[in-house]
Design brief:
alpha+beta; five-stranded mixed β-sheet; 15 strands
Length: 327
């Protein structure tokens, strides 16, 4: 039985103006457009300006939401920003967004579940509202990955871009959005995708001495393709709904080949999958809200649609979330 009392009531997004195309990358590393498209499906990414940070693009995504849905932020009582690229270690991006929005009575926290971040953020917002602790929560997934990308490493620099997406989650016991969820993590494999900070050590190994993103793409690919289809089924079993009744699948936009493999293994049709990677690349916690908003803009997502979100990546954390589209 669904006990949720939370509804998604608005969505918005923002991407920086600057484009980084595959042709541009040819000038930086040994690669070419055909090689990148064949392996990833990505054609270009958006890149923040030198003095443009995660709080800036989070605010712009929230402002886009406000303008399109005629929403006020005055009564928001919690802000959750999902990111692995905060402006500062402290204050949180959420606190900076709270200041930019001028909200006086809102809690503010950052959540880092990497590429699963936005899905985790929605899950937390649903829990807080359903428990009666909050009434209106702004959830943002935003990244400035270009600032932690090594543009000499062709295995990672071809993937990552910057962007932000935002959603409002509000109390509504009559028409909740949230149907079922499943969260997980395999921390023992975290060494396959990391960005070092205070420590450069993990487990008993000394990792690369860099503050940029490091990824063992092959291992992450194998893990995702093995894990995601299984858990998709578990989410559907929790909801007592067959997978073939899902209208749209919205996975993390990591790599088009990975998405194709996940769809093949799960038996879900690729043409009912929403992603944002062709134009924006891998934006970590921003990929799913960008994909959802793209679906709204293209009039694919319709009121009442069942949508299965699945975030997966650094951690290795993952989260499946089945929602009913209520916009």
């Amino acid at each position: 039985m669904n006990t949720s009392k939370a509804r998604i009531t608005a969505i918005g997004s923002y991407v920086p103006e600057k484009r980084l195309t595959n042709d541009d990358l040819e000038q930086l590393v040994k690669t070419n457009n055909e090689w990148i498209v064949q392996r990833t499906g990505i054609q270009e990414r958006r890149i923040t300006a030198e003095e443009e940070f995660t709080s800036d693009i989070s605010f712009k995504a929230a402002r886009n939401l406000m303008e399109r849905y005629d929403q006020s932020m005055e009564d928001v009582d919690m802000i959750i920003v999902c990111t692995l690229t905060p402006d500062f270690k402290t204050p949180s991006v959420a606190s900076l967004v709270q200041a930019k929005l001028g909200i006086k009575h809102a809690g503010a926290i950052d959540l880092n579940a990497a590429c699963a971040g936005f899905t985790y953020g929605l899950h937390v917002a649903n829990g807080l509202i359903t428990a009666g602790l909050n009434k209106k929560i702004l959830v943002v997934g935003a990244e400035t990955l270009s600032k932690v990308t090594d543009y000499k490493d062709r295995t990672t620099c071809i993937l990552f871009g910057d962007g932000a997406g935002a959603a409002l989650v509000e109390w509504d016991e009559e028409q909740p959005s949230f149907l079922a969820s499943y969260l997980g993590s395999e921390g023992e494999s975290g060494k396959h995708l990391y960005c070092a900070n205070l420590s450069h050590r993990m487990f008993e190994e000394t990792l690369a001495d860099t503050d940029k993103i490091v990824q063992n793409g092959r291992e992450v690919y194998k893990w995702a393709v093995a894990t995601v289809p299984k858990v998709m089924q578990q989410v559907m079993e929790k909801a007592s709904i067959p997978l073939n009744e899902v209208d749209w699948f919205v996975p993390h936009s990591a790599n088009l080949r990975m998405i194709e493999s996940i769809c093949e293994r799960s038996g879900y049709p690729i043409d009912q999958t929403l992603h944002s990677l062709v134009d924006f690349g891998n934006t970590s916690s921003a990929t799913i809200p960008l994909s959802l908003d793209k679906g709204v803009m293209e009039k694919k997502l319709q009121y009442g649609d069942k949508v299965l979100l699945y975030g997966f990546g650094g951690g290795l954390a993952h989260a499946g979330l089945l929602i009913q589209w209520t916009l």
